[in-house]
Specification:
28 helices; 18% strand; globular; 731 residues; Rossmann fold; alpha/beta; 39% helix; seven-stranded mixed beta sheet; Aminopeptidase; 4 domains
Length: 731
């Protein structure tokens, strides 16, 4: 029997249900018999859907897959069951735990048999080619299982098999349903914390406000209430968020306040990009879930109103807000304003959706390192001793489980530095055999970390398929992009160590710590070594040294300067902005051998030649400082940009005959058309002259292909391929 006498503290009830799908479902539905429709989540929910009642009757439960879990953000559930039997999603666990209300049920389902031996169906998305789930013993599953059975775990185990094996009915574990939960008080008065934050907001002493708090603290209610009251007071207000579906609670509060005031006004919601092109200058702009919006876009939004409020989740359900807060807050502090304050922080610490010191929230935060560790906070690095006392350590795979303190310190550093770090990244670090970490240490403190991914050495046949656009194997970001987007035919044969994440403690930044760590990694990479020397748990023996260090990141002038200072050279600029960062991605390499130096020099020259054409035409939105950083060491680009080369011919042939993307051959096409016009093989009377001249002279966003009778992207590409092929035949 499980008591529900938690009405005062409103803690959630946590269960680990073991058994077959029918047994687990029976136990779960018994526990929440008097609750509103519960939610069941799994890698594949087909089996559960088959056990649900037909559509003619009320379903016993709702279902969602791991991929759909994000859609539950902002929702409230009485009970949630996550079945981890066939696969594990750390982010689904974190997200859905935050939707369960106080006194509700959060349950995890596992099989009776050895769960660790069952092939994980969700694992492939973390593994690079050629690894398959069957080859991997998941370190993350063992990590999670240990946490489920730890002394601090809030989960009570119900094992249906053990119940069946009980010799007498009196010895069987009895499951008693929890009583129905009280109705949620709709539109309750603001708490003291919310009222205090709203009072600060209404005083308008700051140009910008930042509200960062964990989930379940009432941010949406505060925003909806404040938005409505400002509108009621005659202020010009607007709201924006990454998507409108996640602001239902905010909308409900907004409508309630105005209804009580006998006002019928539509909520002034705008998509972020639509807000930027709106000429209105608002009195107050509310930005919800701001950490999911690219920082450059946030900077632009901040200029659209007299005052702005940026609200975001503190720790990582959809990505950690802490890193966002640190970086964006610095910009807000430095902004020029005539207000009393440039920026003011608002906080909400007391949970509303559940009780204080909730065991489930504590367990989730502890398991996925989503809150600051006090021991970590008190072991901050003494910056004056950094140069003298740091040492280096490499850790990967199962070794992390034997060094939990380093895992905690490393992951929390990543959370604080990269606002996209999520619980899923923990699984990636633990389970991807190509990933390992280099740590810069001062005693036991981690002052800097670089997550390194081994890439490359693709078979010739696979490289050819990637080059032609018919294969896209998992992982191997750098060689794949150099093949598919730059047409570098031998890019797949080299070995790359990609620095996929690098982070340094805030008080150790700008002191050379990260650069020294990169120097150490370079030293290790140049050696001939057995991979086992670094990754004790890996059985692959490999003695070849690394050819290139590499990196790919959201291009800003500051970050480019860091990598240039450390000897990296750019070889590819992305053609579209990354949705998360709002920036173009830049790939850079550092050659570590003579042949690598020769190849990198050629790649860089091609990059500069293409940039000279593309930058003024296709990247007009880049500021001067960034453009200059991208053009670093570009003294000879003018000589290169107008010469049509055999490499250009090969690139255009890949476009015509295979699947090379059109945006990646814009510079090559420009050189071809210019030369054809100069040599009079393309003249004004040619049927494609006007189209081709338009293509090479206007940015892709400006071209109106419908003027040439081309209405779809498919039609445009087909017609351009024919036109380019004609020109190539004339050469």
């Amino acid at each position: 029997m499980y008591s529900s006498d938690n009405s005062v503290d409103k803690h959630r009830h946590c269960f680990l249900l073991k058994g077959s799908i029918n047994e687990v479902l029976s136990d779960f539905l018994r526990l929440c018999e008097y609750f509103s429709t519960p939610l069941i989540c799994a890698h594949d929910v087909a089996q559960y859907d088959q056990l649900n009642l037909p559509s003619s009757r009320k379903p016993l439960f709702r279902t969602c897959s791991f991929k759909q879990a994000r859609q539950e953000l902002g929702q409230t559930n009485d009970a949630v069951l996550i079945d981890l039997t066939q696969g594990v999603s750390a982010s689904a666990l974190a997200i859905l735990s935050g939707t369960v209300r106080g006194n509700g049920v959060f349950a995890i389902a596992l099989p009776n048999e050895n769960w660790l031996s069952i092939v994980d169906q969700d694992l492939p998305r973390y593994l690079p080619w050629p690894y398959e789930s069957e080859q991997i013993e998941s370190n993350f599953k063992l990590f999670l299982l240990n946490h489920l059975h730890s002394d601090t775990s809030p989960f009570k185990t119900i094992n249906s098999y053990e119940k069946q094996q009980s010799q007498t009915p009196s010895k069987r574990a009895k499951i008693q349903a929890f009583p129905a939960l009280d109705l949620i008080e709709e539109n309750a008065p603001l708490t003291k914390e919310q009222a205090k934050a709203q009072s600060c907001l209404f005083k308008k002493k700051a140009k910008s406000y930042v509200l960062i708090a964990p989930r379940g603290r009432g941010k949406s209610t505060l925003l909806g209430d404040s938005l409505a009251k400002m509108l009621q007071a005659g202020k010009k207000v607007a709201l924006t968020a990454p998507n409108q579906s996640a602001i239902q609670t905010l909308k409900n509060r907004f409508e309630h306040v105005l209804k009580n005031a006998n006002l019928d006004v539509e909520m002034p919601f705008f998509a972020p990009d639509a807000l930027l092109v709106n000429d209105t200058h608002w009195d107050m702009l509310f930005v919800d879930e701001a950490s999911m919006i690219p920082v450059p876009l946030l900077v632009a939004l901040n200029k659209k109103a007299e005052h702005c409020l940026f609200s975001t989740t503190d720790y990582g359900y959809e990505g950690a807000g802490k890193g966002f807060g640190i970086r964006f807050y610095r910009y807000l502090e430095a902004q020029s304003t005539q207000k009393t304050l440039s920026v003011q922080s608002l906080t909400l610490s007391l949970p509303i959706r559940w009780g204080g010191n909730d065991p489930l929230e504590n367990w989730i935060n502890d398991c996925f390192f989503l809150t600051p560790n006090q021991e970590l906070e008190t072991s901050r690095i003494h910056s004056d001793n950094l140069v003298k006392s740091h040492t280096y350590k490499a850790i990967a795979g199962a070794e992390w489980l034997t060094q939990p303190d380093f895992l905690s310190r490393t992951f929390q550093l990543l959370v604080s530095a990269h606002y996209q770090t999520s619980p899923d990244n923990l699984r990636w670090i633990l389970d991807d055999p190509s990933v390992y970490a280099h740590l810069s240490l001062q005693g036991s403190a981690v002052n800097s970390v670089a997550i390194v991914t081994e890439e490359g050495q693709l078979p010739d046949e696979l490289s050819r398929a990637v080059l032609q656009g018919t294969r896209r194997p998992r992982g191997h970001l750098i060689p794949q992009s150099l093949l598919a987007h730059e047409g570098i035919e031998d890019a797949g044969q080299y070995r790359y160590w990609r620095i996929s994440r690098i982070a340094t403690q805030e008080n150790a930044q700008n002191k050379g710590v990260a650069s020294q760590l990169l120097n150490h990694i370079e030293t290790v990479a140049k050696r001939s070594f057995a991979r086992n020397d670094i990754m004790k748990d890996c059985s692959i023996q490999d003695t070849a040294p690394c050819d290139f260090l590499s990196t790919s990141f959201a291009a800003t002038a500051e970050v480019i300067a860091f990598w240039l200072k450390n000897g990296f050279i750019p070889v590819r600029l992305g053609t579209t902005k990354d949705q998360a960062s709002g920036c173009y991605s830049l790939m850079m390499v550092k050659p570590l051998s003579k042949i690598a130096q020769e190849r990198a020099s050629i790649w860089h020259q091609d990059y500069l030649a293409n940039l000279a054409i593309n930058l003024p035409r296709d990247y007009q939105d880049l500021d001067t400082e960034l453009a200059e950083a991208l053009n670093n060491n570009a003294s000879d680009k003018r000589k290169l940009e107008n010469i049509f080369t055999e490499k250009d011919r090969n690139d255009l042939t890949l476009f015509v005959d295979h699947h090379r993307p059109y945006l990646t051959i814009r510079a090559q096409l420009t050189r071809l058309v210019r030369q054809a016009i100069a040599q009079k093989t393309l003249i004004a009377s040619n049927r494609n002259y006007l189209l081709l001249n338009t293509v090479i002279s206007q940015s892709t966003d400006e071209i109106d292909f419908t003027a040439f009778g081309l209405k779809t992207k498919k039609q445009v590409e087909k017609h351009l391929k024919l036109a380019v092929n004609e020109l190539l035949k004339e050469k």
